[in-house]
Amino acid sequence: MANKPRAIAPAPQKLGVLLPGMGAVASTFVAGVLAVRNGLGEPVGSITQLGRIRLGKRTEKRNPLIKEFVPLTDLSGLVFGGWDIFGGNLYDACTTAEVLDQRLIDKIGDELRTIEPMPGAFDPSYVKRLNGTHMKPGTRRDWAEAVRADIRKFKADHGLEQAVMINCCSTEVYRELTDAHRTIEAFERALDENDSNISPAMVYAYSAIMEGVPYANGTPNRAADVPALLELAAQRGVPVCGKDYKTGQTLVKTVLSPMFKARALGVRGWFSTNILGNRDGEVLDEPENFKSKEVTKLGVLDTILQPDLYPSLYGDLYHKVRINYYPPRGDAKEGWDNIDIFGWLGYPMQIKVDFLCRDSILAAPIVLDLALFLNLAQRAKMKGIQEWLSFYFKSPMTAAEVYPEHDLFIQQKKLKNNLRHMMGEELITHLGTEYYDEGTDE
């Protein structure tokens, strides 16, 4: 039975997309959108642009494009800005990243050169392998006030009423929660005291929330997921989501592990290693930074396989993750998995996966979808954690009382059912009669 649709404000003709960290991922995203606008490519990998959604029963044959089903800003209306700790413009960033063909970069070069990152918030103790040259001075409170002023100026300069922020910065060192993160008052006091427990990522998240700008964290860093900022987002009615884009190896894990569980096949061990040569690989070569990534990557299997419920199948699973910096590969990452499984009567088998992927090529369409969906959520007056966007993340944010859902296909159902609910369409439950069952989601 269909529900009443949510009241959703019209999509803005122009939407600002603010990007902390305008390196390989952000520059590939921006250049990709400009290329699509100019008829130089297709937005492959973007659910908002190429994905369809089934409505009603299969017999109704209603499968519109998602961008035609929910009100989203057209790609022609996206306006780009952001911050980076290195100078130059986005043409320079694209050329340095060496993700896209230089001939394509040159075709959209005039537009790329007009986008110049603002000085970034940076503390070298959080990203030890990088030496910034284009940074904001002062204390953490100074950074926050400057970023907030940047947001207001960006919107005014481009005639924007609405904007979103998608964090594309480098991975910061791992930090445990402290008292500075637990309440809004403690967080504000820590900003004033220039407390080193407040990371640059948290400064960007705080600034976005204070300016009413929806925020997504594409990194493994602690940011909007600390209690103080979650409380602030709820108070100010701002949607937030994260964290860590689900792109290469973890994407594969969230597809294969549900298969093992669905067929009651056991897993004894899962060894994962990566080689990556871009700036992210260099940063993750530092053990403290790798710890942040390791935490987001290791949590996937336990949540999907539930060893506490299936101890004979997964109770003794050995899971190891490695990331190795290998400069010759650049952005062309290789993720290799060895999986030791067992079947009937405990007989062993193996699966080996070698995923030769392009990190930023997989991440760029995620940035696009998050920007459009977060703006949709804000116009639908949704606030706080947007768990329906878990589909895009390695370590999805959830309410404190529930565990995150990692299974890619359950995440996809949640995303699409949320869109159906927003628009007043019947949810797909896969229940029905022998002749009119609900079938697949598509």
What does this structure look like?
This protein has 442 residues and is α/β, with parallel strands linked by helices. It has 2 domains: 294 residues, NAD(P)-binding Rossmann-like Domain (Rossmann fold), CATH 3.40.50.720; 108 residues, 2-Layer Sandwich (Dihydrodipicolinate Reductase, domain 2). Helix content is 38%, strand content 15%. It is built from 16 helices and 11 strands. The strands form 2 sheets. The protein has a 7-stranded parallel β-sheet, sandwiched between helices. A 4-stranded mixed β-sheet has the order 8-7-9-10. Helix 1 packs across helix 4 and helix 7 packs across helix 9. The longest helix has 21 residues. It is globular and about 65 Å long. The two termini are 19 Å apart. The C terminus is likely disordered.
In short:
This protein is of the alpha/beta class. It has 16 helices and 11 strands. Strands 3-2-1-4-5-6-11 form a 7-stranded parallel sheet, with helices on both faces. A 4-stranded mixed sheet has the order 8-7-9-10.
